[in-house]
Structure formats: structure tokens, C-alpha cells
Design a protein that fits this description.
Blueprint lengths: L5 E9 L3 H9 L5 E9 L5 H6 L4 E6 L6 H9 L5 E6 L2 E2 L2 H10 L7 E10 L2 E2 L8 E8 L3 E2 L10 E2 L3 E13 L2 H21 L6 H22 L6 H25 L6
Parallel strand pairs: 1-2, 1-4, 2-3, 6-11
Antiparallel strand pairs: 4-8, 5-11, 6-7, 6-8, 9-10
Helix pairs in contact: 5-7, 6-7
């Protein structure tokens, strides 16, 4: 069935995303006016897969430590009235496209918050803070930007913000090993951020960062946000949220020459 394309630019930044990029592009190529893919230092077939889709514009840049730099490069390359940014492991749904077709022609908003339906190792995570994970994702051209301070930084929208009810899909981690690999990367960035803010080893920081924050994170995710209702994956997700805090602090200690030997 043929659909009219919407005045939306889809911006995707992908680093070695060959395994997931094709499905991402398939979910948007028939409905988006414009698609920009930034291949960020990819050494696999990411760029070739993106170019195999008709009309997709591919930009190649290094995989920056401040990842949102490449999002901003993609935003600058668009010409469509609206911009929606996706990660390569995220997918549009037909229902989301239909809602945008209904809302965008008459809206006065400058941007929208959109829900994200997260899957962990094949399971839709309904609790533990994973659903509904609403994020600012859609904005009029020139109205969205990042401060470029953190890997998980949220978009800033300059103006009024509405809400889209239909979610997009996030295949967050396909395997536990993939989760471990990404956690190693993200905790390195978090450690750098904390270190730049002056966090160092101290008895107080051992208590706060080595014990208090991880414990609070687990309690929040598993008990207060009812992660236990998602079974063993809910427990795993809460434990890893706590481990993220602990490991980030341990990397600060590990990188301090005063703690060597």
C-alpha cells in the first residue's frame, strides 16, 4: 500500500550498526521525506547498507567521544520541516506514522515528546522505569539541539512541546553480552563526566558512589518502579542499573595514578 510521505527528516547516527540498521531504515524509508545516516567511524557494512536504500543520504564522520556532535551534524544536513532522530536499534511503527500524519499538518507545537517501547533480550519491559519512557524526539527544523554533555543526554526543544501517544520501538539489548559491551562504553563516559566534575577517591565518595547510589538505584528500579513484575529480566535490569553506578565510580579510581600499585 502506497502512503504519502510526510515532511519529516529521520536522522540516524550509527557506529558499526550493520546488524540492525536495515530494519531501522525499512521502518521509515517509505514515509519520511528525508533520511540522513551518519556512519560514525564504522568499520563494518553500515555505510553500504545505508546507501542501498534509495534516497538515503550518508555522511561519514569519526565516532566522537561526545556522541551528540554527530546528531547535530545530521540535524544541520536536513531540509524537511520536521526532524525525528532515531538510533539504529530503534524502529518506527505504522501506528506512529499514522498519528504523525494526523497531527503534524495542523499543530502549533515546536516539538513533541514520544514514548519509547523498550525490549530487553526480546522482552517488552513494562516496569522498572522502562515504560513508558517518554523522550523529546520530534521538532521543527532549527528548534532542537543538544548541549553535548553526556551520552544519554536528552534533546532540548526551543519552544512549545506536545505529546505523541503512539510509541516507537527500541530493541535496547539483543543479548546479555551486548549489554555488557555497551555498559563498558557508557560507564567510561560516565566516569569521565564525574571526574571532570571533581569526583575523586575519598571515604565519603566510597560511601556515596560505591554504596549509596548503587543501592538507591536498585531500590528505585526493582521496588519503587516495580521491576520485579518483569521477572528475572526485571531483576537483571535493576541490578545492572546499580552496577552502572558502581562501575563508573570504580573506573575513576582505576584511572587515578595515586591508586596504582
Amino acid at each position: 500500500m502506497s502512503h504519502k510521505k510526510l515532511p519529516v527528516a529521520i536522522c540516524i547516527v550509527s557506529h558499526n550498526g550493520a546488524a540492525v540498521l536495515s530494519d531501522c531504515l525499512s521502518s521509515v524509508v517509505d514515509r519520511a521525506q528525508e533520511i540522513i545516516v551518519v556512519s560514525a567511524g564504522s568499520t563494518d557494512a553500515t555505510s553500504e547498507i545505508a546507501r542501498s536504500f534509495s534516497g538515503v543520504k550518508v555522511l561519514e564522520y569519526p565516532n566522537e567521544v561526545v556522541m551528540k556532535i554527530n546528531n547535530m551534524r545530521a540535524f544541520a544536513a536536513t531540509s524537511a520541516q520536521w526532524t525525528f532522530f532515531l538510533d539504529d536499534d530503534e524502529r518506527f511503527t505504522p501506528d506512529l506514522w499514522e498519528e504523525l500524519a494526523y497531527v503534524l499538518p495542523t499543530t502549533s507545537y515546536d516539538g513533541f515528546i514520544v514514548g519509547r517501547k523498550n525490549y530487553l533480550v526480546g522482552t517488552w519491559m513494562r516496569h522498572g522505569g522502562w515504560w513508558p519512557e517518554r523522550q523529546p524526539r520530534l521538532f521543527r527544523k532549527g528548534k532542537g539541539s543538544f548541549k553535548m554533555e553526556h551520552v544519554h543526554e536528552l534533546l532540548d526543544i526551543d519552544g512549545t512541546v506536545g505529546v505523541i501517544t503512539e510509541p516507537f520501538v527500541h530493541l535496547t539489548y539483543r543479548t546479555i553480552r551486548e549489554h555488557f559491551r555497551k555498559t563498558d562504553t557508557y560507564t567510561s563516559f560516565q566516569a569521565e563526566k564525574w571526574a571532570a566534575a571533581g569526583v575523586r577517591w575519598s571515604p565519603k565518595n566510597h560511601l556515596v558512589y560505591g554504596f549509596g547510589r548503587p543501592l538507591a538505584r536498585f531500590v528505585q528500579k526493582y521496588l519503587l518502579e516495580r521491576g520485579f513484575l518483569d521477572g528475572w529480566k526485571g531483576y537483571y535490569a535493576a541490578f545492572e542499573a546499580a552496577h552502572y553506578e558502581f562501575l563508573s565510580y570504580m573506573k575513576i579510581i582505576d584511572s587515578d595514578p595515586a591508586n596504582k600499585g
